[in-house]
From TrEMBL:
One of its GO terms (molecular function) is acetylcholine receptor binding. GO terms for biological process: positive regulation of neuromuscular synaptic transmission; synaptic transmission, cholinergic. TPR repeats lie at residues 123-156. Residues 305-328 are annotated as: Disordered. Residues 305-319 have a biased composition (Polar residues). The keyword Repeat applies. It comes from Tupaia chinensis (Chinese tree shrew). GO terms for cellular component: neuromuscular junction; plasma membrane. InterPro entries: Postsynaptic, Postsynaptic_CS, RAPsyn, Rapsyn_myristoylation/link_N, TPR-like_helical_dom_sf, TPR_rpt. This is 43 kDa receptor-associated protein of the synapse. Residues 1-80 form the Rapsyn myristoylation/linker region N-terminal domain.
Length: 467
C-alpha cells in the first residue's frame, strides 16, 4: 500500500467515522496499519485509532495504540510527531485515572525542544495536565494549568480548545462549590459551539450540555438540568459515546434524587456503575457510590418516624453514605431495598464505603476520600461508635489540609457550601465577600496586582470591611 493509497484509506475511514459507521472505520484503519509501510501514514492512522477508542470508552485499547504511536514517532525522528504521541499517551492515562502518569507525560511534552506542534498543542497539554491535577484534587495547580490552556486558546484563536477548557473549568467550580461559575463556564462553551461549531463534532455540544446539566442541578433548576442532560444523552447514544452515556446516567440519577424520586434514581445509578466499571473509570465509580449514598440518607430521613429505635442520621447531602451496588442494587428490587431497616443499610453502606475508599485511594482523589470519611463519620455517629467516629474525623481534617480547601483571607473552608469564589493570578482562590471590591480598589492595578495572602502575611479581616 503506497502513500497515496494510505492517505485515501485514512480519509475513507474518517468519512465512515463521521457518519457514525464506527466499526467499519476501525476496520479500514486497522487494514492500513497492517499493510502500509509508510511511517507517516501509520502515525496518522494510529492517531485516528486513539481518538476513536477514546470516544468509545475503550481506554486500554487507546493506551495500546498510543504506545505504538510513540514507537512510530521515534522511528520518524521527528519532534513534532513525538510531542503529539506523548500527548496521546498522557490523555490515555488521564482516561484510565492514572493521573500521576498523565502529569509526567505532559511534563515530557513541555520539556521537548521547541517545535511547530508545540504552539498548536501546548494548550491541549496544559488542559490534560489540569484535568489530571483536578483528578488528584490539587485545585491550585489545576486552575493554573486551565488558565495556561485558556491563554493558548485566546492567543491562537482556538475556539475548540477554549470550549474544552470552559467545560473543565465548569467541573472545577462545581467541585469547589461556586455554582454560579460552574454554570457560567459551560454556558460559555455552549456559546462557542453555537458561534463557531458548525463544522465541529457534535461531541462538543454534548459535552457543554452535560456540564450545564450538572450545574443546573446543583443550583436546584431541575427542569433545565433534565433538558440539558437529555440533549447530551441523545448525542452520546447517536455517536456511541459510552463515557458520556455513563456521565449522563449519573446526572439523571442525581436529578431524580434531588427530586426525591429515589426509586427512579437507584436503577440509573446502577446503569451508570455498570458502564463506569466496563470502561475502567474508577473515579466515576466513586462518584456513583457517593450519589447512591445520598439516596440511602434521604431514605433514612423519610423513614425516620418509623425507625426511631435504630437511631437518627443527619440528612445533609455532604453526610451521605453509599451502599454497594453490586450486592444491594443487583440482588433486590429498588422498593425492597428502600424498605430495609437501618442496621442493614448501615452494614451495606460501610461495606460500599470501604470499596469506594479503596478506589479513591488508588486514583489519589483527595476530595472523594474527604467525602467518604464524612459519610463514615455520620454512620458511626448514628451507631454511637466513638472510636471509629474519631478516626474518621481525624482523616477528614487531614484531607482538608491536603487539598488546601480553605480561604486565605477569612480562613473558612472552601467547598463546604455554595459560595462565590475569586481566583488570583497565582491561582489561589478565596471567598468573595461584601466589601472585597473596596479592598481590590485599594490595591494598585486591582485584583491582578493584589499580593496573595497565601504567599505573604495573612490579610486582616478589617481590610475587607469599608471604613
Amino acid at each position: 500500500m503506497g502513500q497515496d493509497q494510505t492517505k485515501q484509506q485514512i480519509e475513507k475511514g474518517l468519512q465512515l467515522y463521521q457518519s457514525n459507521q464506527t466499526e467499519r472505520a476501525l476496520q479500514v484503519w486497522m487494514k492500513v496499519l497492517e499493510k502500509s509501510p509508510d511511517l507517516v501514514g501509520r502515525f496518522r492512522v494510529l492517531g485516528c485509532l486513539v481518538t476513536a477508542h477514546s470516544e468509545m470508552g475503550r481506554y486500554k485499547q487507546m493506551l495500546k495504540f498510543a504506545v505504538v504511536q510513540i514507537d512510530t514517532a521515534r522511528e520518524l525522528e521527528d519532534a513534532d510527531f513525538l510531542l503529539e504521541s506523548y500527548l496521546n499517551l498522557a490523555r490515555s492515562n488521564e482516561k484510565l485515572c492514572e493521573f500521576h502518569k498523565t502529569i509526567s507525560y505532559c511534563k515530557t511534552c513541555l520539556g521537548l525542544p521547541g517545535t511547530r506542534a508545540g504552539a498548536q498543542l501546548g494548550g491541549q497539554v496544559s488542559l490534560s495536565m489540569g484535568n489530571a491535577f483536578l483528578g488528584l484534587s490539587l485545585f491550585q495547580k489545576a486552575l493554573e494549568s486551565f488558565e495556561k490552556a485558556l491563554r493558548y486558546a485566546h492567543n491562537n484563536d482556538d475556539a475548540m480548545l477554549e470550549c474544552r477548557v470552559c467545560c473543565s473549568l465548569g467541573s472545577f467550580y462545581a467541585q469547589v462549590k461556586d455554582y454560579e461559575k460552574a454554570l457560567f463556564f459551560p454556558c460559555k462553551a455552549a456559546e462557542l459551539v453555537n458561534d463557531y461549531g458548525k463544522g465541529w463534532s457534535l461531541k462538543y455540544r454534548a459535552m457543554s450540555q452535560y456540564h450545564m446539566a450538572v450545574a443546573y442541578r446543583l443550583l436546584g433548576h431541575l427542569g433545565s438540568a433534565m433538558a440539558c442532560c437529555e440533549e447530551s444523552m441523545k448525542i452520546a447514544l447517536q455517536h456511541g459515546d459510552r463515557p458520556l452515556q455513563a456521565l449522563c446516567l449519573l446526572c439523571f440519577a442525581d436529578i431524580h434524587r434531588s427530586r426525591g424520586d429515589l426509586e427512579t434514581a437507584f436503577p440509573r445509578y446502577d446503569s451508570a456503575m455498570s458502564i463506569m466499571t466496563e470502561i475502567g473509570n474508577r473515579l466515576g465509580q466513586v462518584q456513583v457510590l457517593l450519589g447512591v449514598a445520598k439516596c440511602w440518607v434521604a431514605r433514612k430521613a423519610l423513614d425516620k418516624g418509623s425507625s426511631q429505635s435504630h437511631g437518627t442520621l443527619p440528612s445533609s447531602p455532604s453526610q451521605a453514605h453509599p451502599p454497594d451496588p453490586a450486592c444491594a442494587m443487583s440482588q433486590a428490587p429498588v422498593r425492597q431495598i428502600c424498605l430495609q431497616p437501618w442496621p442493614v443499610l448501615a452494614f451495606q453502606a460501610l461495606d460500599a464505603i470501604e470499596r469506594a475508599q479503596d478506589l479513591a485511594e488508588e486514583v489519589g482523589n483527595k476530595l472523594s476520600q474527604l467525602k467518604l470519611h464524612c459519610l463514615s463519620e455520620s454512620i458511626y455517629r448514628s451507631k454511637g461508635l466513638q472510636r471509629e467516629l474519631r478516626a474518621h474525623v481525624v482523616r477528614f481534617h487531614e484531607c482538608v489540609e491536603e487539598t488546601e480547601l480553605y480561604c486565605g483571607l477569612c480562613g473558612e473552608s472552601i467547598g463546604e457550601k455554595n459560595s462565590r469564589l475569586q481566583a488570583l493570578p497565582c491561582s489561589h482562590i478565596f471567598h468573595l465577600r461584601p466589601g472585597l471590591g473596596l479592598f481590590f480598589s485599594r490595591s494598585p492595578g486591582g485584583p491582578e496586582a493584589m499580593l496573595c495572602p497565601g504567599l505573604s502575611a495573612p490579610v486582616g479581616a478589617d481590610l475587607l470591611v469599608p471604613p
